[in-house]
Design goal:
Helices cover about 60% and strands about 5% of the residues. The chain is mostly helical.
Length: about 550
């Protein structure tokens, strides 16, 4: 009997090793697929927001340092952000496309590693953590593909959240190392807060709420004395640590609002007002979660119906998982914290959306929504633990994994074989400009920075406001995601001007001379001039 048990254990260990190796191979294949995808299609959906990140990184590689006083930032100061990776790579490569792809892969590896770190802190098995990491590399929706995978926008925010919660869980589980883990976490919170308000709302405020919520549950609602005694010390420690994290992040935000504001140019968020309850904005918020997991508009009989069906199942499974974790006592304190964090963070975002006039775009929900993945894995893990038949256990695992593969496959298929295969006119315009020797130009923001990246940094754009009606004159340069020098120093030598179809009849267009036609189509007109003075009407 002992021999049989040993054989079973050896077989199980072998299966686990094979499963983990299989997951690691899939992770590598996902990264390779990403690189190929970006190499073939990346330029076809590049926009000026994404290009601006690369321009800043290139500027930092020349200036040195983490932040630049020569740059107009947007509403968020990039402190612990993607430019740290891209600016470093510009010291190695001169090709912007290589920097973009290599940087994207490195950032995805960092994301993957942070998921493994969080999984370990929740005490997931190697198979479960590798599964969690793999899902983070799958384009489960066009929203995730664009804002996380392709342009890496939200990777820093997600990584900060994963690492913060992981360090928090390690701190409450390792009493002797609590001070070390908490100290590192406070430093991270300070730096995260220096970037702006986002992490305070998405991470540190919800964590304080989670600690208070658990403390109340432990002291007033739990009837199980054994569980109460086990939790009481850990949760008190959790509450204290989270208060210090919140304090550190707040200090960082105050540094952002005072010291950094004096030295670096970035816009404050507009004033936010409380409003009456808005059911429409609540629906928009709930729709954002669906979009995060692949929901898309389309005919009910089209391919979208399959993708949307899977999307609804994922969100439904996530809701069931959260409810089960909060309700049942079979889950550990670490697993409980993850579910409560997801709930608290989402409720905060929902309250901001329905009771204020704050702008909350679909993409803002991404750093919170990703926590649905570990919550589902936790739920499936606990629910199959009591099943004795290995076939049933394996089936549940495979189905849960297949769930995400279907979503990612649908979304990636839809993108690769539709929009991204079509080259944009920007590619053609860039070729025409370089062929005719133009390296400086004017255009509205969305028709601006994109040319710098497409031209491998050879074209420098002086950008106007994205709303051309706000532009009073050709030298009215937009103080947003471009070099400060553009405001005070107009270009010398040959210049060009690009106007879209909607901009041709604007008041600004009336102040510009018609120049040499470099490129013309229904959508765009590009005029060339020997100098800036030739472009401007007297």
């Amino acid at each position: 009997m002992v021999k049989d048990d040993n054989k079973i254990n050896v077989k199980n260990e072998r299966r686990i090793k094979i499963s983990v190796i299989g997951m690691l191979i899939l992770i590598v294949l996902s990264l390779v697929s990403y690189g190929i995808f970006m190499y073939k299609y990346g330029a076809n959906f590049l926009d000026s927001d994404a290009a601006a990140e690369m321009i800043l990184s290139n500027l930092l590689s020349k200036e040195g340092g983490v932040l630049s006083r020569s740059w107009y930032y947007s509403s968020e100061l990039r402190v612990l952000n993607t430019q740290l990776i891209f600016s470093f790579l510009f010291h190695i490569f001169n090709n912007w496309k290589i920097v973009r792809i290599t940087g994207g892969i490195l950032l995805l590896i960092i994301l993957c590693t942070s998921a493994l770190f969080l999984g370990k802190s929740i005490k997931m098995t190697h198979f479960e953590t590798s599964m969690f990491a793999l899902v983070m590399l799958l384009p489960v929706s066009d929203l995730y593909l664009e804002f996380v995978m392709a342009w890496s926008y939200y990777i820093p925010h997600i990584v900060i959240s994963f690492v913060t919660i992981a360090l928090l869980l390690f701190a409450i589980n390792h009493e002797k190392k609590t001070v070390v883990f908490s100290g590192l976490n406070c430093i991270l919170a300070l730096i995260a807060g220096m970037g702006g308000w986002r992490q305070l709302i998405n991470l540190y405020i919800p964590l304080v709420i989670v600690a208070g919520w658990l403390y109340i549950d432990t002291n007033f609602t739990l009837k199980n004395d054994i569980k109460k005694n086990i939790y009481k010390t850990d949760i008190l420690r959790l509450l204290i640590i989270n208060c210090f994290l919140f304090l550190s992040a707040t200090i960082g935000f105050l540094i952002n609002s005072t010291v950094l504001r004096k030295n670096y140019e970035f816009k404050r968020m507009g004033s936010v007002w409380f409003t009456d309850f808005s059911s429409e904005r609540m629906i928009n918020m709930l729709s954002a979660v669906l979009h995060m997991f692949g929901y898309d508009q389309g005919k009910a009989t089209s391919f979208s119906s399959i993708k949307n069906g899977v999307c609804f199942l994922i969100v439904l499974l996530g809701i069931i998982a959260v409810r089960d974790i909060l309700k049942n006592k079979i889950y550990s304190i670490e697993e409980d914290i993850i579910a409560r964090y997801l709930t608290a963070a989402f409720v905060i975002m929902l309250l901001i959306e329905v009771f204020s006039d704050a702008l909350i775009a679909d993409r803002y929900i991404i750093p919170i929504s990703v926590f649905i993945v570990p919550v589902i894995i936790i739920f499936l893990k606990r629910r199959y633990e009591n099943i004795n038949q290995s076939k049933e256990k394996k089936t549940i695992l495979l189905l849960s994994f297949l769930f995400f593969v279907i979503v990612s496959g649908c979304s990636l298929y839809n993108y690769c074989f539709s929009d991204f295969r079509k080259e944009t006119e920007y590619n053609q315009i860039t070729e025409s400009l370089l062929e005719q020797g133009y390296d400086k130009g004017f255009g509205t923001f969305w028709n601006g920075d994109v040319f710098t990246e497409l031209s491998n940094g050879k074209i420098e754009m002086y950008c106007w406001d994205s709303d051309i009606s706000n532009v009073k004159a050709p030298d009215d340069i937009y103080k947003w995601l471009q070099k400060k020098s553009h405001v005070n120093e107009l270009p010398s030598g040959k210049v060009f001007c690009i106007l879209s179809a909607d901009e041709r009849n604007s008041e600004l267009a009336k102040k510009i001379n018609a120049g040499i036609a470099i490129y013309e189509s229904e959508e765009y007109t590009v005029w060339g001039y020997e100098s800036y003075n030739d472009m401007v009407k007297e």
